[in-house]
Amino acid sequence: MLQTGQDSRDRATPGGGSPDVRDRQHWPKAIVGYAVDYVPGHSTGWHHHDRDQLVHGERGVMTVRTDDGAWIVPPGYAVWVPAGVVHEVRAASAVAMRTLYLRQDAGVPLGPRCRVVAVPTLVRELIARVVALPRDYPEAGPEARLVAVLADELADLPSAPLDLPLPRDRRALAVAEALIADPADGRELADWGREVGASTRTLARLFQSETGLSFGRWRQRRRLLAALERLAAGEPVTAVALDLGYASPSAFIAMFRRTLGAPPTRYLKTSTDSQGSAG
What we know:
This protein is an alpha+beta fold.
């Protein structure tokens, strides 16, 4: 279940709490990799890094959270987390995380804000190779050329609609938090307005201006992210669709395909395979 990152900065630790991660961030190379496997439900705790991070998983589904929102990472995607951003990574299923830490001079301008990016097969394979590189590979050898190709490819990764930005206004945030807790809640803005003390027009304006999404699109995004987490846990598509308030499984599948370009069975199968291989 998604949760917001309130007061996360008060309990954040540098480097993610892992001695190996902290050590790698001081390696002499501009781009370094790190491999770790997580069991379902594992949390890294709230932390931050001195380097930019690309959170990528070969298998399984992860959720990255900050004070500003949440980002889902299914197979084939990654989350860009800029240096200094306090965040938590939680495994929705068994996860094989293959992540990168990048210095500011690495030449990968993916921006100052968290976002989900698509990871094509070439980039996935390059990440796997970089993760396995030794600390002091030659500056002029094939390893360095491989890292240079990866940097070029990372700079062109396209964004994907798998983020859930949070409004700042306390009234709109109360609505968002209620839908995070219960994404199937089908109440309309007029009903929410009476509960939080704001007009329908005010809430609509706040969601659009503070999240970049209309209320309807924000709620659909929340349901999609909830579905990805539940599919990763092995739940059947029909149960997920009906529990999240869709009129029929076919309506849910059509939304899923429009958003991600593939039916949910693809992600369900990938998550099931990852859990089996981790066991």
